[in-house]
Amino acid sequence: MPFLATIADKLQSSMPYYVCTHVRPDGDAVGSQIAFTRYLNSLKIKAVCVLTRDIPHNLQTLIKDTPCIYLEDMKDKAGALIALDCADLTRLPASFKNLTYFLNIDHHPNNPNFAKHNYVQDDFSSTCEILITLFKAVCWNFDPIAAQALYAGLITDTGNFSHSNVSANTFACAAHLLQCTHLKPYTIVQALFEQKTLPQMRLLSLFLSRIQLCCNEQIACIELTQDDYVKTNTQHSDTEGFIAHALTIQNVKIAAFIEYNENFVKGSLRSKEPHLAVNQVARQFGGFGHICAAGFQCDSRTFNRHQLIQALASLIAQS
Ligand SMILES: [Mn+2]
Question: For the whole model, what pTM was predicted?
Answer without folding.
Answer: 0.90
